[in-house]
Amino acid sequence: MTAADPLTRRLAFLAELEKLKSVTRQSRLVDGSRNENSAEHSWHLAMFAMVLAPHAPGIDTERVIELLLIHDIVEIDAGDVPYHLAGKDLAKIAATEVAAAERLFGLLPEDEGARLRALWDEFEAEATPEARFAKGLDRLQPVLLNLMTDGGTWDDFAVTEEQVMARCGPPIEGASPELWAAATALIRAHFAARRAVG
Amino acid sequence: MTAADPLTRRLAFLAELEKLKSVTRQSRLVDGSRNENSAEHSWHLAMFAMVLAPHAPGIDTERVIELLLIHDIVEIDAGDVPYHLAGKDLAKIAATEVAAAERLFGLLPEDEGARLRALWDEFEAEATPEARFAKGLDRLQPVLLNLMTDGGTWDDFAVTEEQVMARCGPPIEGASPELWAAATALIRAHFAARRAVG
Fold first, then answer.
1. How many Cβ atoms sit within 10 Å of the Cβ of residue B161?
2. Which residues of A touch B30 (CB under 8 A)?
3. Contact B7 A62 (CB under 8 A)
4. Which range has the worst mean pLDDT, A40-44, B27-31, B170-174, B180-184?
5. Do B51 and A178 make contact, defined as CB atoms within 8 angstroms?
């Protein structure tokens, strides 16, 4: 094998992916032991796609899984930007992520890197029903984690019911009205219980 | 929604999957900071399937990805059994894993749980070319991690070159002779370098 050998390039890319296991997200694990990382988050989301596919009729589930497996790879270089902070400097973050995509997918043989890069572009642009479903699941999963930890990072940042509904409603409802109806009921119940406790 | 509502059952299953992020494997991360967990391992393997598909012509890659996403879920109840220890009590481990599969996949609506259970059975039995490719990747990934950490868990357990070749050769070569040829060259070079130093 030479340095330009396709298999060598594929293995170099897979070795580089190791680093996504050390990219820390804001969400905590439900047991509270530590923060979630972007690699296990990506696995969890792929399982969301497999399991929640019945709520997105007509969607190509296999494509959604691929979108979710690769959606956070750029964070190896760019880090995880929490949703509520991203608004501060969107253009700079986007440029950093594009440079990351070029470097990381560029490790692969050209046509294979281009295929993964196109998947990432599709996800980011929410260009297809599959990308919109994937984005909605990416928003739904932290909601469930926060509900399972009685508030989780919502409490850390004093996020209100109205903010949760405003941030999560459009992407999740766009992905699946059924899923958003269920999430709404759970979110409403959570904040109502909080008010009852005082 | 009632307790038997399909969406409620799907969400309960996805919430339970959270626990796979806390199942610790023997492999260390390449940066040495901690051991790998089975959720991020499953993500990494799904990426192996996406990227190494060219080395398994005729294989249904999407199916391999699904097999790898679900292959370790039983560890939520049964834990991760290192390969070199599994021989000690295979029947007991197998029974524990089957009970885990029944409980965990049983959280889902019946037909959906049965589909995932069938995927797990296919993986365990290496019943198809897809399952054999998935098993081979599951064996290849720790080899790469050990090579990237200059020996890793091979050193911890004084594993010899002959043991690596004997344990990993059949499953990886069965998955893809090309991948085994590449892995063999890397393993031989690693142990040769060790002998030269020591």
1. 15
2. 15, 18
3. no
4. B27-31
5. no
